[in-house]
Structures are given as C-alpha cells and as structure tokens.
Amino acid sequence: MSKVKSFAGGAHPPGNKGLSSGAAVVRLPAPEVVTVPLCQHLGAPSKPVVKPGDEVKRGSVIGEQNGFISLPTHSPVNGKVLRVENAPMPHMRSGPAVVIKTESEDGGEVYEPISDWKNADISLIINRIKEAGVCGMGGASFPTYVKLSPPEGVKIDTLIINGVECEPYLTADHRLMLERADDLITGMNILARVLGVSDPCIGIEVNKPDAIKLLEKKGARVVRLKVQYPQGAEKQLIDAAAGREVPAGGLPLNVGVVVQNAGTCVAVADAVCKGMPCIRRITTVSGLGVTSPGNFDVCVGTPVSTLIEAAGGYRGDVQRLISGGPMMGMAMFTDAAPATKGMSGILALTPDEVRDVAEGPCIRCGKCVDVCPLRLCASVIATASEYGKWEDAEKAGALNCMACGTCSYVCPAGRYLVHHIKRAQNEIRAIIRAREA
Amino acid sequence: MAESRIFDLAVSPHIGSSQTTKRVMWDVVIALIPALIAAFWFFGPRALLLAGVSVGAAVLTEWLCLKFMKRPVNFAFDGSAVVTGLLLAYNVPAGVPWWLPVLGSAFAIAVAKQAFGGLGHNIVNPALLGRAFLMASFPVLMTAGWIAPMQWKDGERIDVQACGVPTAQLSESGELDALSGATPLNVLKQTFTWEGDPERSEEVRSMLFSRESLKNLFMGRIGGCIGETSVIMLLLGAIYLILRGVLELRLPLSYLGSVALFGWLFGGPGWLDGNALFHLLAGGVILGGFFMVTDMVTTPVTKKGRIIFGIGAGLLTMVIRRWGGYPEGCSYSILLMNLATPLIDRYTRPQSFGEVSSNG
Ligand code: SF4
Ligand code: SF4
C-alpha cells in the first residue's frame, strides 16, 4: 500500500459525510420546466441562439460559445423555449438563462460517438470536449478543453484526477467514483492520451477506502491522501501527489501538471464515447436541514427547490442554503435558482451547524497563519483590508489567496478573514486595471 | 413545482471551529487555578484574597473603561480581564497589602490595555506592565513582601514565618534556614556579590542546587510571588491547555530551552557552570513560559517569530538574572520582547506558497 500523502497547513473540520455517503445516486427525471443558465462555466456566458416558442431537442445547442474562455450550452430536454431571461443563480445574484418547458427526455440530438478514441485525432477529441460543453465539475467550472490545450512549448507530464472531495458534507464525487468507476477510468485515459501523459493517477482521501479499493482493483493508480482540508485545492493536491510547488500567481501547467476533477472525467467519457453533451451531473443534497440527505443525478436547470424535495424536503429551522460545500460554497438567497454543471452540492444548514458569530477583535493568536496552506498571514491582509490599505494588503500576498476559508474556520475571534481578503483582491485588481488602462 | 423560499446571505466559510476567544480565555483561567491552589496551600488564605481583589479590580476597571468609551460592556466578561487580574496577582509577593494588586490590576487594564484600544490592540502584556508599574512605584513593598511558605511538622501544617525577611539582612547573617524567607533567586544573586568570601558563596550555591532545594522548587515550597512558585501545579495547567489545543508549543519551548541553555552558559559564577534545572524551576520562568510568553496578543503571529521571541526572552531573562539590577528578569524580558514583536512579525513573514519557485 502506498504512503498516505499530504500538504503543510490546513485544518480538520468535521466531515459530516456520513449523512449521505451511503446513499446511492438517484436519477431524477427532468422537471416540468428547466431554467438552463448560460453562465455555468467560468468565462463569457454562452450567446443564446434560441427564442421563445422555439422547439429544442435534448442535446441541441441553445447557447453558443462566445470567446476562447467560454463554452456552448445545451438543452437537457426535448421541449419548447418559454423565455430567455435573467434568472437567480446559485453562484451569483442573477444571470442569463433559457427557460424550457419539458416535453420528454429521451433521444434528441447527441453527437457522433468517437468510439475509437485510442486512435482518433487528438484535435477531434479536444473539439468534442469543447462542443459538448464540458467544464470542471469540482466547482470552479473552468472550460476543460482550455486546460487540454497548453500553450506552445509547455510540456505536461503529469495528470492528476481530483477525487479528494475535501469539503465537508459533499459525497457526490465519492458516489461517482463507486458507481461510475469504469467511465471515470475511461475519461482519465482519454485525458491522458490527449495530454500525452503515460501514467495518470487519482488522488483520494483515505476516508473513502471503498473508492480507493474499487479503483485500484480496476487498475487505476491511486494516491492516498490524508484527510485534511483543503487537500483538494489544486495547488495542495499537486504538492501532495506530485511533490511540486506551483508558483505563486502561476498555473499547474507551469510545473507540467494538469488536474481534472473526477466528475469531469466521467463527463469527458460521456462526451467522447457516447457523444453526450454535459447536461446532467451528480450532486449531493445534505445538511441537517433536509429530511433525507442523498446524492442525485440531475438535469442542469433543475430548480434547487426540486432537489430539496427529492431529499425529503426541509426539516426544522434552516438558517442557510449553500451551493457547494460549507467552506467555499456560496450562500443562496433563493431555492428557485437552478442546478448548474459545477454544482457539487446543495446544503441546508441549521443554526447548530452554521457558525454565525459577531466578528471580534483579532487576538493575534496566529492560528490563521499556522493553517494557511499558502503560507499567507491572513490576519495581516485582513487588517490592511479593513483599514483600506490596499497596497499593504497586496504586499502581504492578498492576490495569492485562494479563499479556501481555512483561516476563517480556525479564527477564535470569528473574523471574516476571507471576506476581507476577497474585498482587498477586488480593490487591488481594480487598481491594477486602472493603472494599465 | 415546489414553492420557493428565501434565505439570508452570508460569506463563506459557513462553519467554524468551536474555539472562540471567550473559550480560549476561560481555558487559560482554568489552567491557572492549580497554581492558585498551591498558593493557598503554601501562603495561606491571604493568597486567595489578593488574587480575588486583583481579579475583581481588573474586571471592574475593564467594565468602567468600556462603559466610559461607550463600547459593549460584555467584553468585560470575555475572560481576558480575569486572566490579567490573576496574572497580576501571581506576580506579587503574598505579603503585600491588598490594595497593591488592586492598583496594579487597574493600571494594567486601564493604561496597558484599554488606552491602546482594548483586547487585541495592546502592545505589551497588561499584567506585566501592571507589575512593572508596582515595582517602580512601590519597590520596597514589592521586594520585601515575601512570605515564607508553610512548612510541615508532625503531619501538621505550621506557619514558620509570617512576615518578609529583608534580603540585606539575610546576606549578612548568612543563616541557612533564612533561605526559606527570601526567594532562591535573591540568594543566588547575592552569592555573586559577596565579596571576599568565595567559599561561603560556593557553599550556599551548592545548597541552592541541591536535590532537596530543587525538589522544593518543583513543589513550590519556597519564597516567591503568589503564583510562580509551584512548578508542578503550573505544569498541570499547561498540560490542560495543550489538551484543549490552546497552547502552541513553539513559544514556551523556545523560551524554556533558551533559559536552560543560557542558564547553563552563564547562569553560574563562571562560564559553562550554571545549573540549568535550577534556572528553569526558580522564579517566574515556568509561570512566564506557559502563561505570559504565550500571551497571544503581545507575541508574534508567525511561527519563526515565536521561536525568536522565546529565545530572545530567555536570553534577556538570564542576562538580567546574572548581571541586571534585579534577581529575577522573567517579566522584564517578556516586556522588552513584547516591544520587539511588531518588528519580529514584519521580518519573519513566511514566504508564501510558490514564491520561491516563481523566480526560477
Ligand atoms: S486566527 Fe483570528 S484572532 Fe487569531 S491571529 Fe488570525 S485573525 Fe487574529
Ligand atoms: S482563505 Fe486565503 S489566507 Fe485563508 S487559509 Fe485559505 S489561502 Fe490562506
């Protein structure tokens, strides 16, 4: 058995994964109306190519790619376009979406499968991944094809599949690794071939022994990782699994590494081998504020309220609704928002689970410094930010912060460190833009 | 379709560890209790009285200051004022009049803490500045108020000596049993200055470093400030703090290590012949090392900085003990290092992840 690896820093928030880790994925039928966001990926939203009254097929393009860092969007159902409008979003206040009345959910217009992907032209495969709208399924939603097209002269020698799922509560990737292991491995091999990497590996925390065992049995190379937040952060994962430190402000490809999420691999396999565009995903619905937490295979565009209903509805006093995990996820103001490709989970948390304290003065305990995986002094940056000293914040490394939340989590004074740091990042970026303009 | 519901927004992360400022402070209070029990045992009820009035004065002063500055008064009960009050009492001899720690605590809170902006903003350890204020204003009371610890006779506790023994007298009479009246560090200091009687100095020193003497130091059966004498009880508190995850060990270990090293280097009459164990056990080093060097607010936030702080404070402690004007240097050394903390923090900021390789 290989050694259990890890990174320096981090914290150990309670995992609470037992709430849903045993629940097999339930496939939910498409709801009567889907609200498909055109801004599910990072970068420019897709440009809508349908109008109210149009008939659409499952898999037909309803929004086309709009720039290099952008992706097309597909209809998850056969039906009729009702509206093209701005709708509430899980990850932002509102964004453009196509509202479709569902008629059925079978057949449709899928792409031609590339069954001989082992010999097919690599540009064909990359193009398929692009036209199928595949983006990172771990949360950041970066267009996958971009990561597969490294700039001239950059040599990629390592592909790491991220099966860490270090956010508490979330179990979608865990279930995916158990239930779609073959597709996962196929997707990983496709990506490896595209990148020219010979020996890809999957990083998994040791709290998922069943997934580790299954994937190893199927011949995948698994890197065992210590249970420690944020083990799944790209830079930390690369540090732990490959022993390489990504430069500050740099990308994994600067050290010859590409990281892809486990869910992304399955989406790649679906796109390449089945010609299926990215219109569904597996997501966790959990928290003590839902009756029966579980994992669901849902159409993008399904309202969160429908997901909550599938999990037995709300229970007790729900204080916060979160898209994603409790460490980095976004609080949502309404459950009318739709599921997206990047939605790893929906959490309904009760007051017992949420920490909601008044921010106290910093007692300079240094805990935030001890735990920061990027070795930043969160308290220093946050204080500079509170006083509006953007330059000091920048000097202290504000722009390097990945907002993992470990510092806020451990702060005994309950300071909103991440919030202050993000604010500083926005201000600094605005200053830099102004300087360049 | 399900009815939609509205929720409050908030920033991430949405969960937090159970450790709060209040819990940290009260944990420190709890960790200080064993030493108070020892003080009661060795110095009698007077120790409790002094600690009580000191804590009362600290909390009351904090409350008044907050009230006066129109800030939320419940900060007065976050435990930090209780810690300051206790630590101040622990740093005065048991024979002082009751108003002395009251004055010290009030000064500590009002001047050293609230005048700087309250919790988290003070530059130096309030309790130590309070003590320094008392030393400067009432030097006689602060250095002559030693009470000899209670002793045992036929299974009964007897009070051998209720009042302070001026140290000057001690040095001239040179009686062995008088050792129990002053602090061991006083005596050690005097052996360095007895001129013309090196043999006597040597004899007294070997007595100080004897097994018996070290055992007394460990248990606390010696003269000293209220809360500093019983090493074993202080260690008990320290273990509690470690178990509660409150104590970060870099500060105490680097401080104690530095005291031991420099104590051995120059803590004796010549070079390389000091008794490291004696220097660790005597005076305020254990109290300081686990409860004052570790004060979060006034020490560096960086890991490297904490080690530098500890080593610096240990060095200064030993320099004062050996060559300074006082027999004990623990509290002044920490105060001095408190002043250096912002500088240490500035120069020990860690290189952030990936900064090294970005040049390559
Ligand atoms: S963890 Fe909180 S209280 Fe401690 S130093 Fe950091 S910001 Fe200050
Ligand atoms: S949120 Fe930023 S500063 Fe805080 S621990 Fe994570 S990377 Fe470090």
Integer-rounded radius of gyration of chain B:
22 Å
Number of strands of chain B: 2
N→C terminal distance of chain B: 57 Å
Helix/strand class of chain B: mainly alpha
Low-confidence stretches of chain B: 157-181
Q: Could you name the CATH topology of the largest domain in chain A?
A: Ubiquitin-like (UB roll)
Number of helical elements of chain B: 16
Number of strands of chain A: 17
Q: Can you give the mean pLDDT of chain A?
A: 95
CATH class of the largest domain in chain A: Alpha Beta
Number of helices of chain A: 13
Query: What is the helix fraction of residues of chain B, given as a range?
Result: 55-70%
Could you tell me the radius of gyration of chain A in angstroms?
21 Å
Most extensive interface, residues per chain? A-B, 78 and 47 residues
What's the shape of chain B?
globular
What overall geometry of chain A do the principal axes of the alpha carbons give? globular
The proportion of strand residues of chain A reads 15-25%
Helix-strand pattern of chain B, N to C? HHHHHHEEHHHHHHHHHH
Helix/sheet category of chain A: alpha/beta
Supply database-style keywords.
A: 437 residues, alpha/beta, 6-stranded mixed beta sheet, 17 strands, 27% helix, 19% strand, B: 360 residues, mainly alpha, 16 helices, globular, binds iron/sulfur cluster
